[in-house]
Amino acid sequence: MLMVFTEPFIERATEEAVKKEKIKARQLRKSPWWKRKCAEGVCYFCGRNIRPKELTMEHVVPLMRGGKSSKGNVVPACKECNTRKKYLLPIEWEDYRKSLLEDTWS
Ligand SMILES: [Zn+2]
After folding, report:
1. Does residue 60 form part of some domain?
2. Which residues constitute the domain of residue 75?
Protein backbone atom coordinates (compact mmCIF):
# COMPACT_ATOMS: atom_id res chain seq x y z
CA MET A 1 0.00 0.00 0.00
CA LEU A 2 1.31 3.39 -0.93
CA MET A 3 0.97 6.15 1.62
CA VAL A 4 1.27 9.75 0.65
CA PHE A 5 2.48 12.19 3.28
CA THR A 6 2.07 15.90 2.96
CA GLU A 7 5.20 17.99 3.33
CA PRO A 8 5.36 18.91 7.05
CA PHE A 9 7.24 22.15 6.45
CA ILE A 10 4.58 23.51 4.17
CA GLU A 11 1.54 22.48 6.12
CA ARG A 12 0.53 25.04 8.70
CA ALA A 13 -2.49 25.18 10.92
CA THR A 14 -4.72 28.21 10.65
CA GLU A 15 -4.72 30.70 13.48
CA GLU A 16 -8.32 29.80 14.16
CA ALA A 17 -7.51 26.09 14.53
CA VAL A 18 -4.57 26.81 16.84
CA LYS A 19 -6.73 28.99 19.05
CA LYS A 20 -9.30 26.21 19.35
CA GLU A 21 -6.67 23.66 20.29
CA LYS A 22 -5.22 25.97 22.92
CA ILE A 23 -8.60 26.20 24.59
CA LYS A 24 -8.88 22.42 24.47
CA ALA A 25 -5.41 22.13 26.03
CA ARG A 26 -6.48 24.35 28.91
CA GLN A 27 -9.45 22.09 29.56
CA LEU A 28 -7.34 18.97 29.27
CA ARG A 29 -4.94 20.39 31.85
CA LYS A 30 -7.76 20.38 34.40
CA SER A 31 -8.81 16.82 33.66
CA PRO A 32 -8.24 13.94 36.10
CA TRP A 33 -6.44 12.15 33.28
CA TRP A 34 -3.80 14.87 33.08
CA LYS A 35 -3.46 15.11 36.85
CA ARG A 36 -2.83 11.40 37.01
CA LYS A 37 -0.17 11.71 34.32
CA CYS A 38 1.60 14.48 36.21
CA ALA A 39 1.33 12.57 39.47
CA GLU A 40 3.57 9.92 37.91
CA GLY A 41 6.24 12.60 37.91
CA VAL A 42 8.17 11.52 34.83
CA CYS A 43 9.22 13.72 31.93
CA TYR A 44 8.15 12.10 28.67
CA PHE A 45 11.27 13.25 26.81
CA CYS A 46 14.21 12.74 29.13
CA GLY A 47 12.57 10.20 31.44
CA ARG A 48 13.85 11.93 34.57
CA ASN A 49 11.79 12.08 37.73
CA ILE A 50 10.32 15.54 37.99
CA ARG A 51 8.12 16.98 40.68
CA PRO A 52 4.51 16.97 39.36
CA LYS A 53 4.25 20.71 39.89
CA GLU A 54 7.19 21.33 37.58
CA LEU A 55 5.83 19.32 34.67
CA THR A 56 4.34 21.24 31.78
CA MET A 57 2.01 20.13 29.02
CA GLU A 58 3.82 19.61 25.76
CA HIS A 59 2.35 18.85 22.34
CA VAL A 60 4.26 16.10 20.54
CA VAL A 61 3.10 17.44 17.19
CA PRO A 62 3.10 21.22 17.64
CA LEU A 63 -0.21 23.00 17.18
CA MET A 64 1.34 25.09 14.43
CA ARG A 65 1.98 21.88 12.52
CA GLY A 66 -1.60 20.76 12.85
CA GLY A 67 -1.19 18.85 16.13
CA LYS A 68 -4.23 18.41 18.38
CA SER A 69 -4.84 18.85 22.08
CA SER A 70 -5.76 15.21 22.45
CA LYS A 71 -4.67 12.54 24.88
CA GLY A 72 -2.56 11.00 22.14
CA ASN A 73 -0.65 14.20 21.45
CA VAL A 74 0.05 15.79 24.82
CA VAL A 75 2.73 14.60 27.22
CA PRO A 76 4.20 15.87 30.49
CA ALA A 77 7.61 17.47 30.03
CA CYS A 78 10.07 19.10 32.40
CA LYS A 79 10.86 22.77 31.95
CA GLU A 80 14.24 22.05 30.42
CA CYS A 81 12.85 19.81 27.67
CA ASN A 82 9.96 22.18 27.11
CA THR A 83 12.28 25.12 26.55
CA ARG A 84 14.65 23.19 24.35
CA LYS A 85 11.84 21.83 22.19
CA LYS A 86 10.57 25.33 21.51
CA TYR A 87 13.83 26.68 20.22
CA LEU A 88 15.27 23.72 18.40
CA LEU A 89 14.54 22.74 14.84
CA PRO A 90 12.91 19.30 14.63
CA ILE A 91 16.16 17.76 13.39
CA GLU A 92 18.17 19.30 16.26
CA TRP A 93 15.51 18.17 18.69
CA GLU A 94 15.95 14.58 17.46
CA ASP A 95 19.68 14.86 18.10
CA TYR A 96 19.02 16.16 21.58
CA ARG A 97 16.68 13.28 22.34
CA LYS A 98 19.19 10.78 21.02
CA SER A 99 21.94 12.27 23.14
CA LEU A 100 19.72 11.92 26.21
CA LEU A 101 19.08 8.27 25.41
CA GLU A 102 22.78 7.63 25.01
CA ASP A 103 23.44 9.27 28.36
CA THR A 104 21.03 6.86 29.97
CA TRP A 105 22.89 3.84 28.66
CA SER A 106 26.47 4.94 29.10
ZN1 LIG B 1 12.76 16.44 30.48
Report:
1. yes
2. 15-101
Residue 99 φ/ψ region, left for φ over 0, alpha for ψ in the -120 to 50 degree band, beta for the rest: alpha
Q: Is 1 part of any domain?
A: no
Ligand 1 centroid vs 100 CA: distance in angstroms? 9
Q: Model confidence over 24-75: pLDDT tens digits?
A: 999 999 999 999 999 999 999 999 999 999 999 999 888 888 889 999 999 9
pTM over 0.70, yes/no: yes
The pLDDT of residue 92: 81
Q: How far apart are CA 94 and CA 90, in angstroms?
A: 6
What is the Å distance from ligand 1's center to 19 Cα?
A: 26
Task: Give the CA angle between residues 85, 90, 94 to the nearest 5°.
Answer: 85
Within 10 A of 59 (CB to CB), how many other CB atoms are there?
A: 20
